[in-house]
Amino acid sequence: MASPPDTSKASKLERYNSYLRRRVSSAKLIAASSYILFRATLLAALLLIFLFLLHSPPLLFSGSHYYSSPHSNHRSLLSSSSAAWEQDVRRSATPRRADGLSVLVTGAAGFVGTHCSLALKRRGDGVVGVDNFNAYYDPALKRSRQVLLARHGVLVLDADINNVALLAKLFDVVPFSHVLHLAAQAGVRYATRNPQSYVASNVAGLVSLFETAAKHADPQPSIVWASSSSVYGLNTEAPFSELHQTDRPASLYAATKKAGEAIAHTYNHIYGLSITGLRFFTVYGPWGRPDMAYFSFTKSILSGKPITLFRMPDGTAVQRDFTFIEDVVKGCLGALDTAKKSTGVAGGGKKRGPAQLRIYNLGNTSPVPVAKMVSILEDLLRKKAKKNVVTLPQNGDVPFTHANVSLAERDFGYRPTTDLATGLKKFVKWYVEYYGVETTKRINRKRKIAGEEEEEEGAAASA
Ligand SMILES: O=C(O)[C@H]1O[C@H](OP(=O)(O)OP(=O)(O)OC[C@H]2O[C@@H](n3ccc(=O)[nH]c3=O)[C@H](O)[C@@H]2O)[C@H](O)[C@@H](O)[C@@H]1O
What we know:
With 463 residues, the chain is α/β, with parallel strands linked by helices. The protein has helices at residues 7-54, 56-59, 73-79, 83-93, 111-122, 139-151, 164-173, 195-215, 252-271, 293-303, 325-337, 370-381, 406-412, 420-434, 440-462, and strands at 61-62, 65-66, 102-106, 126-131, 155-158, 178-181, 222-228, 275-280, 283-284, 306-311, 319-320, 323-324, 357-362, 368-369, 386-391. The chain has a domain at 54-283 and 323-365 and 399-417: 3-Layer(aba) Sandwich (Rossmann fold), CATH 3.40.50.
């Protein structure tokens, strides 16, 4: 007799098979879902990369300005094919008035650059700024100026003037009518400590700009740039006239500015660039440069630190033709407005005819002893300076400066109207507000307001 089938074995086998089937199908499910997950992650990553490339400058946008690290800036701006970036540049460069200028301002986050950019924008011109935000003085101040400019619709890009590719790209995007070239290594005495920075900015940088404007820009822009009163060097004839010799520079700074004037002549001569040089005389005012004496003296007086005052070996005073920023801005705009067109053929061809080449003093016409400047600050700050008077060291300083501005007055109506006391008052007002300084005046004003409030409360309580 055949034995009955072993049902328990068959059902065990069946259970085992179904277990195996379940394992296989769940393994398949896991494999399929991880594959889908992998594809989705890959897709998301690609999408992110694409979005980054599309918007790379805007993604570097911090607050209200383009921001990138000093080393990545040029690459990121250049590698960008961003239509959005170009649109922002064009928007900033487009004038809002008929026949308005379209100006590329170099050193736009600098002291003079900020004021000129604002003035141009206010009257309806288009402005795009570039600045390398170097650390010669507190970059935070330059960033604050950049934010101020952004609020007024002026875009300032992180860019160095030695980056010819970037300059060329800017000229491709915008047919600038003018360049206001203010980017430079400033400061007279610092040149003994860091000579190469003067050559890099004031000579190589100037050549980069002239090269691009002459050979790449179409149309060629008219250029107005910052020279310096320091080119008069050890000149003893006063007041300084543009007709005087300028071949005795006392500092490397002065020598690089003088070299700049010679280089300007060459680019004007060969390529027909219209070039105007402006010799600034110790420009001061709100949003100024912390390395300058009036600024650093203010800081020292307020914090009770001693200041060093230079005087001549024979005991006479060192004098400067201190010039207020608002007067200088008028001079810069006047020079831009009267600049004639360049005459060169874009692409570096020879000029079609002679082009304008000008040089002007922009000073105040009334030199003031540095000690007088200090006493004005003492009055405004209501605090005495601790003075350490020493003989002028041989580190590039000149005994005095004094501008004759009749050429600038004749050609574009330049007439400085601000005396040192008035200008310093405006500077001190800005300084105490910007740095939140508690001056005696501010403390008294606060006490007065608090006292009035207490009186009002007392009167209300007794009513
Ligand atoms: O007009 C110009 O061409 C130049 O003006 C200024 O150069 P400077 O006149 O030397 O301006 P400050 O550095 O502010 O010095 C002003 C005066 O204070 C004096 N000083 C400066 C520093 C100091 O510690 N003590 C002192 O007595 C200087 O000798 C000078 O007479 C700017 O710093 C330069 O960038 C500019 O190009």
